[in-house]
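Field log, afternoon session.

UNIT: design team B
ACTIVITY: writing a sequence onto a fixed backbone
BACKBONE:
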């Protein structure tokens, strides 16, 4: 009888211990499971845990994977969550100042191969070298009076370049064949990367025939394009696309056509023609009512007569830029009542809601028709 009671007591104690251990395990699981464990879970399982438990770590993991099952209206801000303790960040980190900045993303599709360019030092080194090339090109420009300028990059408080890892909500096969940049812009806007004082420049680790696409708000380099393996080509291409994020080349600049330098500059090794040099026409000029790259708010030292490409190319707030080739396209668009992206004065705004072009000109998330 005693032995039976003892066994019963031990059995009950063992059951109680197991129950307590199980509760503790499930409570602490999100905090102790690394992303390497989450990566083995199906999207369905991660979505169920994220929405069913409401636990922040599960929700952050789902957002980091690019799953749309998690509501983003709460604007969950991830500041320190890393993958396998490698220092990877899933969101734009706190800014060191309130100035205009260019923020970089390393972006892969839902099924894309992650080569870890955001944490292996490659992108940081490339962008450091790029800014030195920009400094040398601006300083050498014959109208710069020897003053060099660099782009304003987004840095973390620890002094490192702020690079966000983004896994999109689409598989590679689901991307637009003609314009995957449209898919990227929509997704960035959806997850809250839409600060009008920032350019979101993405190094997308998949292929597209164009190699790169950009405009005010968003820029893209497609790392799997065959030319990206050539020495120095990523820097040349990024400088080219960064110029488009600044709104250029503007139609009012002589010797330009469709946002690029005219054909007579082929082989000249200028930016916007496959090179590093900055043609004086697009960097500094004396054309009244026409923007020049040297005055962009995204360059430092900052000009005393800056222009903001978001206000010009996205909102059509031209201000002092009254050149006929700047104003005429807008007048024509307003007269017609709909937007035609081919009739433009500079590069196209990447925050435009293209699905509504037949009805006017709308920014993503807005019902304000800018053509009225």
């Amino acid at each position: 009888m005693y032995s039976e009671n003892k066994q019963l007591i031990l059995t009950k104690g063992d059951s109680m211990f197991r129950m307590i251990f199980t509760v503790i395990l499930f409570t602490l699981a999100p905090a102790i499971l690394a992303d390497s464990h989450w990566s083995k879970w199906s999207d369905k399982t991660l979505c169920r845990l994220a929405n069913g438990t409401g636990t922040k770590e599960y929700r952050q993991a789902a957002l980091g994977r690019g799953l749309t099952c998690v509501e983003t209206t709460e604007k969950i801000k991830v500041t320190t969550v890393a993958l396998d303790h490698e220092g990877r960040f899933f969101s734009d980190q706190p800014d060191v100042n309130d100035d205009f900045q260019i923020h970089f993303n390393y972006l892969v599709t839902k099924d894309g191969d992650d080569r870890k360019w955001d944490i292996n030092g490659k992108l940081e080194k490339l962008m450091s070298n790029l800014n030195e090339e920009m400094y040398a090109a601006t300083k050498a420009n014959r109208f710069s009076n020897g003053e060099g300028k660099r782009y304003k990059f987004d840095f973390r408080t620890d002094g490192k370049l702020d690079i966000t890892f983004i896994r999109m909500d689409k598989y590679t096969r689901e991307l637009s064949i003609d314009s995957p940049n449209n898919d990227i812009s929509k997704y960035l806007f959806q997850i809250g990367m839409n600060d009008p004082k920032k350019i979101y420049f993405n190094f997308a680790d998949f292929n597209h025939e164009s190699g790169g696409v950009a405009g005010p708000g968003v820029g893209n380099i497609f790392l799997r394009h065959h030319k990206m393996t050539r020495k120095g080509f990523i820097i040349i291409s990024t400088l080219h696309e960064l110029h488009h994020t600044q709104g250029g080349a503007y139609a009012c600049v002589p010797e330009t056509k469709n946002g690029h330098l005219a054909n007579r500059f082929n082989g000249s090794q200028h930016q916007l023609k496959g090179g590093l040099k900055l043609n004086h026409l697009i960097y500094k000029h004396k054309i009244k009512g026409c923007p020049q790259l040297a005055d962009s708010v995204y360059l430092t030292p900052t000009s005393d007569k800056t222009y903001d490409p978001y206000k010009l190319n996205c909102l059509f707030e031209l201000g002092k830029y009254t050149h006929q080739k700047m104003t005429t396209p807008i007048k024509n668009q307003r007269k017609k009542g709909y937007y035609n992206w081919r009739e433009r004065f500079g590069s196209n705004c990447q925050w435009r809601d293209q699905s509504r072009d037949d009805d006017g000109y709308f920014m993503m998330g807005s019902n304000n028709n800018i053509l009225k």
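LOG NOTE: The chain is about 35% helix and 10% strand.
NEXT ACTIVITY: expression trials, pending approval
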